[in-house]
Amino acid sequence: MALNLNALRPVEAIRAAALAFNKALRIPVRWRVAERIPSASRYLSQKNRAQHVLLLEDINEGRFKRKRGEFLCKARITNPAAHERLNVSDIDADKSKRVKVSCQKCLEIARKRWQ
Ligand SMILES: [Zn+2]
User: This protein's superkingdom (predicted)?
Assistant: First the structure.
């Protein structure tokens, strides 16, 4: 049976759209898309599962400062060890951007500062 290439296209189109969307944010340092990691005792609500901008380098623009490993919106990191191990990694940073940033706060900050 022939491989149905048409079936792949929607996924690729969604990825391409997400890559373009994320690229338009013009964040001036290395970053990736990441979710908050819940503390061991509880799951994150759907609302808290937003896709954030996670910074992989420090930002130091006068009064606007962020450290490597922080979310752009400063979402609370409740499980620092797991966050460091699972989220703060350069390795699949490019791959992570196949998913759109969905955190409204991250988007608002990025658009106000760098567009
Ligand atoms: Zn965020």
Answer: Bacteria
**4 C-alpha to ligand 1 centroid (Å):** 37
Task: Please state the pTM of the whole predicted model.
Answer: 0.86
To the nearest 10°, report the CA torsion of 66, 58, 95, 72.
10
Nearest to 75 by CA among 85, 63, 62, 66: 66
Amino acid 115: pLDDT: 82
- Cβ-proximal residues to 23 (8 Å cutoff; 6+ apart), any chain: 97
**Ligand 1 midpoint to CA 45 (Å):** 15
Contact between 90 and 11 (Cβ < 8 Å): no
Q: Roughly how many angstroms between the first and final C-alpha of the chain, as a whole number?
A: 49
What digits encode the pLDDT tens for the residues 2-15?
566 566 678 889 99
